[in-house]
Design a protein that fits this description.
By secondary structure, this protein is mainly α. The chain has seven helices and two strands; from the N terminus they run αααααββαα. The protein has two domains: about 130 residues; about 60 residues, no CATH class. The protein is about 70% helix and about 5% strand. Strands 1-2 form a two-stranded antiparallel sheet. Strand 1 and strand 2 form a beta hairpin. One of its GO terms (cellular component) is membrane. It is found in: Membrane.
Length: about 220
């Protein structure tokens, strides 16, 4: 068991380097989750991304405190890291607790708030129209093509119904097509968030232990 001063110091430095890597990983997961869901306004996923950024900043404080055995730095590092553990654990648990119906509510709310340009981008990518159901429709008397009230659906419906002779043909809604991606993003963020939050708890325990160990160099300010 690592019990002496130098071992605790090296372990804390290594753990903070790991935190920097975890922070970048959480940022990557958050970015991927937003990209996968494309238009959904997912504040929980945004919380995971914010935790990644904060974790990197805290790790820098922890590295400085561990190298210098600075009591004040280590104290604030320990307090902030414990608070981050509580926040990240709560957010990650929320990600795993959200059911399919709640996910769809988040997604539909996000769909209504995004600009039409982004909606059109999603509809072009997935060949869909609207979120849960296509809009009320009208028939173009000139082209004879069935289209929706929303301008961005006109060309999509033409592409979806190019090989169909049904005059009532419409593209399918985007909501069902995005459901699997949204669910995967929530589960991925929740699982990684809970796993890495426990490493933060280990960091708090290691910092408390390291602060109470005397520097063998015998410097007057090394142990307060």
């Amino acid at each position: 068991m690592c019990g002496n001063f130098n071992c605790s110091k090296n372990a804390l430095i290594a753990l903070n380097i790991l935190y920097v890597m975890i922070g970048f990983l959480l940022i990557g997961v958050g970015v991927y989750a937003r990209a996968a869901s494309i238009v959904t306004n997912l504040p929980i996923v945004g919380g995971i991304l914010a935790c990644g950024v904060i974790l990197i900043c805290i790790s820098m404080l922890g590295l400085a405190g561990a190298v210098k055995h600075h009591q004040v730095m280590l104290f604030f590092y320990m307090i902030i890291l414990f608070m981050l553990f509580l926040i990240q654990f709560s957010i990650a648990s929320s990600c795993l607790a959200v059911n399919s119906e709640q996910q769809q509510q988040f997604a539909e709310q996000g769909w209504k708030t995004v600009p039409p340009v982004l909606r059109k981008q999603v509809q072009d990518s997935f060949l869909c129209c609207g979120f849960n159901a296509t809009s009320s429709t009208a028939t173009n008397s000139v082209a004879g093509v069935h289209m929706t009230d929303e301008p961005s659906c006109e060309l999509i419906n033409q592409e979806c119904c190019a090989d169909s002779s049904d005059s009532q043909c419409q593209c399918q809604p985007c909501g069902p097509l995005l459901e699997d991606k949204i669910n995967y993003a929530f589960k991925l963020c929740g699982g990684l968030g809970i796993f890495f939050s426990f490493t933060e708890f280990v960091g708090v325990w290691l910092t408390v232990r390291y602060r109470n160990q005397k520097d063998p160099r015998g410097l007057p300010s090394a142990f307060l």
